[in-house]
Design a protein that fits this description.
The protein is α+β, with helices and mostly antiparallel strands. The protein contains four helices and eight strands; from the N terminus they run βββββαβααββα.
Amino acid sequence: MKRMRIKYDPEVDILVVDLGDLTKSVGTEEVAPGIHIDWDENHTILALEVMNASKRYDMDLLAQHPPNYEEPLALADAAHVLGTTPQALQKAIMRGRLRGVKVGNTWTTSIAAVTEYMNSRSVRGRRPKVEAD
């Protein structure tokens, strides 16, 4: 069973109470102004998100729950969020494009590494044709 974790991200001013595996989320609903819940197919609540948390709670309290962007993240979880496959992310690690390590039989990365990877990707495809006047 996963332990409850509380994280506050000051960059976006959101407090997250993480209760379960968010990769199993099938829905999100705003249950009160600025309060969202995520649930799974059994209607088990997986997370509670409080928007504009600094307007609702004391900053000293929020500062006690900083996010950990370097916390290990399984490639399967990262792939689910990114809409790709774990194999594609494993190739990116092996090519040095994505930071990650193998822990036992599981490849892991981190939110920070995935963010860096996504920011570094170039837009591929054909260049738009320039019309002559």
